[in-house]
Structures are given as C-alpha cells and as structure tokens.
Design brief:
single chain; mainly alpha; DNA polymerase, domain 1; 5 helices; 0% strand
Length: 92
C-alpha cells in the first residue's frame, strides 16, 4: 500500500511539472522516511523543500491527492465494522 501510494504521488507531482525522474524521486522520499519515520505526515513538504528549496503547492497538492486515492484503494474494512462502530457510538 505504501509503495503504491508513493509511486502514485510521485507520478502526479511529475505530471504537474516537477522536473525529476520518477525512480530518483521515489528513492529520495524513502531516504527521508528512513530518517523521519515511515508515517511522517509532511513527507512531501520535506522532500520538496530539501530538493527544490521551496514547496511548490501545485506539486504538493497533486502528490497528496494521488497518495490518498491510491491508499484508499487498498483500505478495506472488516465485514460489519461500520455497523459495529455506529452501534458503539449510539451506546456512548
């Protein structure tokens, strides 16, 4: 899931104008993950700031949207999980 999400994010950033080869960008993002942790929420901000000295919001937005879409394609809830959560919420 993580790999597919990163790949999608990098592809979207490149499609929106980021001038970097796909494989290089993926490699650099994983190098940052090694330093800050695999679930760091601002990974693309750090990546862009480190390699371009500025955060281009067009690239950032494209990356975040693509990452979330790819991630959501892999997330599947357990059967009846939503009903159970709704019932627990109802019960307080």
């Amino acid at each position: 899931m993580k790999r597919a999400s990163i790949e999608a994010a990098v592809t979207a950033m490149i499609d929106s104008g980021m001038p970097m080869p796909h494989d290089e960008a993926v490699k650099l993002i994983y190098e940052i993950y090694d330093k800050v942790g695999i679930e760091h929420q601002e990974i693309f901000d750090i990546f862009l700031q480190k390699h371009y000295r500025v955060v281009d919001f067009k690239w950032l937005a494209a990356g975040i949207v693509a990452y979330r879409r790819a991630r959501n394609n892999y997330l599947v809830t357990y059967p009846h999980a939503r009903q159970t959560l709704a019932e627990l919420l109802r019960r307080g």
